[in-house]
Design goal:
alpha/beta; single chain; Nucleotidyltransferase, domain 5
Length: about 210
């Protein structure tokens, strides 16, 4: 186990790590996961999902899902992101993931510095928690792999945007495809989709 990752914030307390993936994307949902790991769980490869290659993330996904006491995944759609903003949608996805847990943890460890708690479960926000606590790292892996899987399905529906490679993130290829092809129902219209969006917006095909 990477030496920087801790098992829990308070020893002996059952905690669920919570994290999200896809906040900075131009298309697709924001996806969150919540994970309760068993006491003493560790894995030498587990780390913040952003630090892991895709093959390792996919390997860890199966290990986490089979080893966890409970895990849940939730999402907020592009339409919800546009309606309530990306921060609120990320928190909504987190709540939906927590609701999928088959048991209620004593405490939530939430990656980042903002969480509007409507769960009734005490929580602690932890900046860079996904690189500090095993349960948050596990949640980051599940959120990322489940979201990537969704983006591969959306790529089959709209293959022109390279979502199989960029997963909806704002790469030059993705922005160029938006300029050429217009937007899809999966694009977040409240985001700056192209660098020259203000002049192009009214002419984009819908």
């Amino acid at each position: 186990m990477p030496h920087s990752l801790r098992g829990c914030l308070e020893p002996g307390r059952e905690e669920a790590g919570v994290d999200e993936a896809g906040r900075g994307c131009l298309a697709g949902p924001v996806v969150a996961a919540a994970v309760i790991l068993p006491p003493g769980f560790s894995h030498p490869l587990l780390n913040d999902s952003k630090q892991l290659p895709e093959k390792t993330r996919n390997l860890l996904r199966g290990i986490i899902e089979s080893s966890a006491i409970a895990w849940g995944v939730g999402m907020a759609t592009p339409a919800e992101i546009d309606e309530i903003n990306i921060l609120q949608a990320s928190i909504l996805a987190m709540h939906r993931a927590i609701q999928q847990l088959t048991r209620t943890p004593a405490h939530l460890l939430v990656d980042g510095n903002r969480f509007y708690n409507r769960t009734g479960i005490p929580h602690t926000c932890l900046v860079k928690g996904d690189a500090t606590f095993l349960s948050i790292a596990a949640a980051s892996v599940l959120a990322k792999t489940h979201r990537d899987e969704m983006m591969l399905r959306l790529h089959d529906e709209f293959p022109g945007y390279g979502w199989n490679a960029n997963k909806g993130y704002p790469t030059a290829t993705h922005r160029a495809a938006i300029r050429e092809l217009g937007i899809t129902p999966y694009h977040r219209q409240s985001f700056r989709l192209t660098n020259d969006q203000l002049s192009l917006w009214d002419t984009l095909p819908r």
